[in-house]
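Supplementary notes (optional reading)

For those who missed the lab, this is the record we used. Protein: Flavin reductase family protein. Length: 171 residues.
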Amino acid sequence: MAGERVLDSPTEVTELYLESMRRSAAGVSIVVAEMDGRQWATTITAWCSVSVSPPTLIISLSSYTAAAAAVSETQRFGLSLLGTDAQPAAEFGSAAGQAKFLDQSAHLHPGVDGCVKGAFAHLDCQVQQQLDVADHRIFVGRVTSAVMFDEADPLVYSNRQYCGLARWESK
C-alpha cells in the first residue's frame, strides 16, 4: 500500500498513535460538572454511546483535571453536544490552565441549567461506574434527562482544527 508506515518501536508507535488520533474526526462536546457550587466546562471529543436501554454513555477525562475530580465527587455530569455556533465555547472549555466556570462566561445557555449555548443537545447523567485507565478516568453515565434543540450542524474537531459537518437530508 502506497504511503504505508509500519512502526514497531515504543516511541514510534506512540508518535504514530498521536498522529492517528489527531487526524481522526470527532464530534465536539462539553462536559459540565459542578465544582464548589458552580458549573465548570471541559471540552472533550472522547465520549460515546454505550446503550439505548437504559440510555448510557461513557466519557473519558484526564485523571489530573478539575473536571475529573468534580465528576468523581458529585457522581453527576452534563454533556452538551455542540453545534458550529458553539466553537467559542469549545475554545473556552479547552483552554489549558484557565478557570472554566460557565457563570463567568457568555457560554451558558439561558434556558437550560448546565447547558452550553450553541449545543444541539444536552444530556444529564448519573455516574454508574468509573474506571482508571492509564492517565484517564472513564465515567459510565446513565442519562437521566435530555434536551434537544433546533437542528444545528455539529461541530467537529480534526487535525487541531474545528470545522462544521454539513447537514444531510433525512430519508
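If you only remember one thing from this example: The two ends are 36 Å apart (CA to CA).
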